[in-house]
């Protein structure tokens, strides 16, 4: 057991899987010799050799297309897309190919690939280093979509994703790489070492896909969140003094509807938060699920706190980012309803 | 503004339109035997001429000539001839079946039979092809059961793909035939990835990627060339230039500015331009590229010059965009006729034996179609069960799909 930040936990998961399974290969832009622009693959090429961990040309469709072909051969590729903002050139290979290969071949071919990609804002990344495109993938049948919020889950979920025989989009909130960020940008960053979830076991373990976790138990209101917004929700609960239950979804697809239902039936109130833009965002799906399963238990309209329906701005970072103030206001609003 | 300095957009036009005389003068056709055959390990930069030349073996007198004429066992040529003829008869039967409402759509490969059949017979049993919808010859050349193909085309109760896929989108892993996708170009990049995997594992299998002239304009084509040039995996990259992409002539894909074979030069990938209607040339060029890949010498790009003799699909009417008799004027002739005449010239074949073979294959295809029909057709069924719709989305069915299946009452 060692204390690890999220980058170290991710690198550890890759190390474990490269060691455990000869069919695992890791590649992407700047992933090989240099070890990745976020250092997630540092040292892996040296340890496992250039045919297991290597640099790729700057072609996202090439990276994912190659991974699909490798998967069809029998490898277990873990490609990296440098920023989630740049995943769109690969969208055809992901949505039309990786996601449907099993379906259209009756399971004869499939794409056991895990696409790692840093996502999310809060780092002054502007329009093209801040996006949260998860809803573009939760709408695609055949994909699994995962987003961890802490080092322990990151390692366990990544190992589970790599071992999964279906294609997984593994979103890594880059604002969380070095510490749990609660939206209080005016305060100094707290490192992961102060957080219990930085205790990351050595070796192999998994966190199951499709299972949410309760980040904070509460009785008054359920907050559905994932990634960075889990930490924002936690601090908002603390600051408002509202006894919120914070559900960290971890997997968006498949979604743990049972955990959501149990929590909302207990609290009778629900706030959904995400960084992504609002219209047709994943919150829309979550609200529909809560409405379908818990309508007669609801004591207030469901609130959503999301990014605005604009591209992600630069100078206006903290007016865009749904911080603890906005989440707190939503908590008050549903409690007063 | 000076009218002489006004800009104008260049929109390429084919050499002839409906009502015009067919005109193939744009094709640079060199005589059979003229193209040289480089050594197996020839550096790509030393064979640039071959992207502008045309590898041809069969001459106008039906003799095999020049450096690409290999010592081939006549039995292989007879196999090739049989595969091509069977492919054509199969296509004709399925075209008729579509007209009779037994399936929704069909695509023929008329005129292009030599390319898939010729390359398949040069590949090893464990190599993997990444075909488009126009390489049915890859299956037929290895005597794949026609009944299985037709059951898939009919989306019937015996359709191995459970009715989920469009007709002729076969998937036959054990026969080196990758699952066909409707999204053009995607499989070209995947073929390169598969070949990279084979290299990563130190295997000796190779990949064969396929793309049409029109689809070379997709980004996947460029990505595939980049990856093939960077990692030098064992892949044969086939561009089937049949002059047409639905109604667009190959100039709209950039073929007027430069041929497709020379696309390889910027990537230092060895490139060949080959007569696609010459079975012997197809087999020889394929073998050259396959041996090269297997010797770890990397990828080869091959432009197969051919002509799409039939309509694009059963939903298409070529009379609206090209001369009706254009194929009759196609200077490279018909691949079946050319191989047939060669075998006759060799004293290995005769018109009457050919006629007997056509009848035999016709009966075989008809019997297969009848048998497949006994398992159902698209219109009349029996159809695959509706619950098949929910299978194979994921390896294991997640809870939300279980609920939807229940909700759907299947
Ligand atoms: C990405 C994509 N765009 C458009 C289409 C529609 N489409 C189907 S076949 C075709 C023409 C392809 O022409 P070509 O690559 O020359 O192959 P050919 O049909 O001549 O064998 C088009 C445009 C498609 N299937 N996929």
From TrEMBL, chain A:
Task: Enumerate the cofactors the protein uses.
Answer: thiamine diphosphate
| Keywords, alphabetical | Oxidoreductase, Thiamine pyrophosphate
One of this protein's Pfam families, by short name?
Transket_pyr
Tagged with keyword Coiled coil = no
Gene Ontology MF terms in the entry: oxidoreductase activity
Q: Where is the Transketolase-like pyrimidine-binding domain?
A: 4-179
**Highest taxon of the source?**
Bacteria
Task: Look up keyword Ribosomal protein and say if it applies.
Answer: no
Q: Could you tell me what this protein does?
A: The branched-chain alpha-keto dehydrogenase complex catalyzes the overall conversion of alpha-keto acids to acyl-CoA and CO(2). It contains multiple copies of three enzymatic components: branched-chain alpha-keto acid decarboxylase (E1), lipoamide acyltransferase (E2) and lipoamide dehydrogenase (E3).
Q: PANTHER family this protein is in?
A: PYRUVATE DEHYDROGENASE E1 COMPONENT BETA SUBUNIT (PTHR43257), PYRUVATE DEHYDROGENASE E1 COMPONENT SUBUNIT BETA (PTHR43257:SF2)
**What is the protein name given in its UniProt record?**
2-oxoisovalerate dehydrogenase subunit beta
Q: Tell me which species this is from.
A: Pseudohalioglobus lutimaris
TrEMBL record, chain B:
**Domain Dehydrogenase E1 component intervals:** 82-375
**Disordered: annotated span:** 1-23
What reaction is this protein's catalytic activity?
N(6)-[(R)-lipoyl]-L-lysyl-[protein] + 3-methyl-2-oxobutanoate + H(+) = N(6)-[(R)-S(8)-2-methylpropanoyldihydrolipoyl]-L-lysyl-[protein] + CO2
Q: Which GO terms describe its biological process?
A: branched-chain amino acid catabolic process
User: What UniProt keywords apply to this chain's record, in alphabetical order?
Assistant: Oxidoreductase, Thiamine pyrophosphate
Check the record and name the InterPro entries matching this protein.
Answer: Alpha-ketoacid_DH_E1_comp, DH_E1, Oxoisoval_DH_suAlpha_N_dom, THDP-binding
Q: Does the keyword Transferase apply?
A: no
Q: Which domain of life is it from?
A: Bacteria
User: PANTHER family from the entry?
Assistant: 2-OXOISOVALERATE DEHYDROGENASE SUBUNIT ALPHA, MITOCHONDRIAL (PTHR43380)
Protein name, UniProt field: 2-oxoisovalerate dehydrogenase subunit alpha
